[in-house]
Design goal:
One of its GO terms (molecular function) is hydrolase activity, acting on carbon-nitrogen (but not peptide) bonds. The chain is α/β, with parallel strands linked by helices. It is 43% helix and 15% strand. The chain has one domain: Alpha-Beta Barrel (TIM Barrel), CATH 3.20.20.370.
Amino acid sequence: MKIIIIKRQVLIQIAIILVLIAVTLLILHQTGTIALSVFFAPNKELPIYSVDVPDKRIAISFDASWGAEQTDQLLKVLKERNIKTTFFLVGIWIDKYPDKVKAIANEGHEIGNHSNTHPHMNKLSEQQIRDELDKVSQKIEALTGKKTTLFRPPFGEYNDKVVRTARAAGYEVIQWDVDSLDWKNYGVEDEVDRVLKKVRNGSIVLFHNDAEYTPQALPIILDKLIQDGYKIVPVSELIYPPPYYIDHTGRQFKSGGTDK
């Protein structure tokens, strides 16, 4: 029998490397920039996290599933800068704040589908997923006269079934590559720094409509982005129509080129 002896120093080096890998993965997960599943499941059905564009265009989005106190101020900030964005609305939020839905639409912002009850979609059957999508679509169309074509899964959770079912229903599935983490209420400075450090051409930025510090952070972020030459558009004006492909990081590319 051949006995292999590994020096103590080598074992220590291996242990350090493993710890560094674990810490890196934890940071990626906690910052929410790109879900870990994107990296470890390259054959997975992927939503759009960002878009490969030839110019300095980005999209800003707001998820609305709780509260509405900050919504009017957000709309005011956006109107003052003539910026149009995308609001992803949950059905139960729509039921509670129909006037806010109309206000968002009247200001020219795009409205996306964020499910009816904000469930963990991975646990639902295909029929249940379709029901979640259909109910919200009907509510939004009844209030605004417009159909929804974008879907953001609650909690950012999805699997192949969720993505395929949504696409079969006519939706583009949208995630984000820049997470403000505004719902954690870290403060204005943290929110501003977090977004501005990570934004790049083709980014999709995630905010929430009722986060405590977003009304104060948003003007600073927008003014800096504008100063840096970025054009902010609704999600549907950033993404490519078919044919396109999505790489393993969730970045969307136009098939045959990048001009749009």
